[in-house]
């Protein structure tokens, strides 16, 4: 790692008037040792193109560049942060492109070259929505190779949950069907400025070349939505709205119609998706 030539982040925040705004989910990481640790998750970004969502004052951005990222495309909604990010771009010529805009508008991944990593200390209000989009592209494998994403600990648990646990649901199935998802780091509130109310965790998600089990993504989404929409009910009840012969289809998938959604594995849900295919 080459030394970061830029001033400390507190100085950057003061110089650019970047007082954190709650409306933008701004909880900044100011410790460059910590951002370096996050940048190195999944083997470091050397030789990769990265999409970073919500760079803010640029702590993680700086770490990604210092750790050797080939190119970072950083999408930031807060216009106040753009001049601070421009200083980072000047320190790493040709390697950082800053886009002022809303990450929810999408279209950014298409501008990068593989291998692509998505890295973000996400605003909590849009984190789950972006994750679901990245996990459900029109075709698989996706444009990204892996993702290093900060979430509230509770959301990280839902992404990595095993069947039978109370966090297990739609998010776990979406994340684990075609990817490897693990919690790489947990962080106390004090790691952020200002500290959020809850603990956070960095989740590392690696795309598999092919799904673990065959299933149509649309049907799988419908089945998991119906099953977990009424997670306390038996499947024969919760899946009934999907087909009049739901009970037969559940049996054909090798699942007991009296099971509840949270006891069915990812493999089981893929079998259900095949059984409920039109
Ligand atoms: N990455 C920085 C860090 O780790 O210190 C900032 C993280 S802060 C939790 C979230 C960042 O996302 C803020 O800079 C915020 O302005 C930005 N943001 C919020 N909503 C956004 C959106 N829809 N699109 C792009 N950036 C957004």
Overall description:
By secondary structure, this protein is α/β, with parallel strands linked by helices. It folds into two domains: about 10-205, 3-Layer(aba) Sandwich (Rossmann fold), CATH 3.40.50.150; about 215-275, Orthogonal Bundle (Helicase, Ruva Protein, domain 3), CATH 1.10.8.100. It is about 35% helix and about 20% strand. It contains eleven helices and nine strands. It has helices at about 10-15, 30-40, 60-65, 80-90, 125-135, 155-160, 170-175, 215-230, 235-240, 245-250, 265-275; strands at about 30, 50-55, 70-75, 95-100, 115-120, 145-150, 180-185, 190-195, 200-205. It has a seven-stranded mixed β-sheet with strand order 4-3-2-5-6-9-7, with helices on both faces. It has a two-stranded antiparallel sheet with strand order 1-8. Helix 8 crosses helix 11. The longest helix has 13 residues, at about 215-230. The radius of gyration is 21 Å and the shape is elongated. The termini are far apart. The mean pLDDT is about 95. S-adenosylmethionine binds next to strand 1, helix 3 and strand 3. Its EC number is 2.1.1.182. Keywords: Cytoplasm, Methyltransferase, RNA-binding, rRNA processing, S-adenosyl-L-methionine, Transferase. This is Ribosomal RNA small subunit methyltransferase A. It is found in: Cytoplasm.
């Amino acid at each position: 790692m080459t030394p970061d030539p830029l001033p400390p982040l507190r100085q950057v925040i003061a110089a650019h008037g970047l007082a954190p705004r709650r409306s933008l989910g701004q909880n900044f990481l100011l410790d460059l040792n910590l951002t370096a640790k996050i940048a190195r998750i999944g083997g470091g970004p050397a030789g990769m193109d990265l999409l970073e969502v919500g760079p803010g004052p640029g702590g993680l951005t700086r770490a990604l560049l210092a750790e050797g990222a080939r190119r970072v495309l950083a999408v930031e909604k807060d216009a106040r942060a753009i001049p601070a990010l421009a200083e980072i771009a000047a320190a790493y010529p040709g390697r950082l492109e800053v886009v002022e805009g809303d990450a929810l508008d999408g279209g950014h991944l298409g501008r990068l070259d593989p291998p692509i990593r998505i890295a973000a200390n996400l605003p909590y209000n849009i984190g789950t929505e972006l994750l679901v989009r990245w996990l459900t592209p029109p075709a698989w494998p996706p444009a990204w190779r892996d993702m290093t994403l900060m979430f509230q600990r509770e959301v990280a648990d839902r992404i990595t949950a095993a069947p039978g646990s109370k966090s297990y649901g739609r998010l776990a199935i979406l994340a684990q069907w075609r990817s490897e998802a693990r919690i790489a780091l947990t962080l106390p509130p004090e790691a952020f400025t200002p500290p959020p109310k809850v603990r956070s965790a960095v989740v590392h998600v690696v795309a598999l070349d092919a799904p673990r089990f065959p299933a149509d993504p649309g049907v799988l989404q419908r089945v998991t939505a119906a099953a977990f929409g009424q997670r306390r009910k038996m499947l024969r009840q919760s899946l009934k709205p999907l087909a009049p012969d739901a009970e037969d289809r559940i049996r054909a998938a090798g699942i007991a119609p009296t099971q509840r959604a949270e006891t069915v594995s990812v493999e089981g849900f893929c079998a259900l998706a095949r059984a409920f295919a039109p």
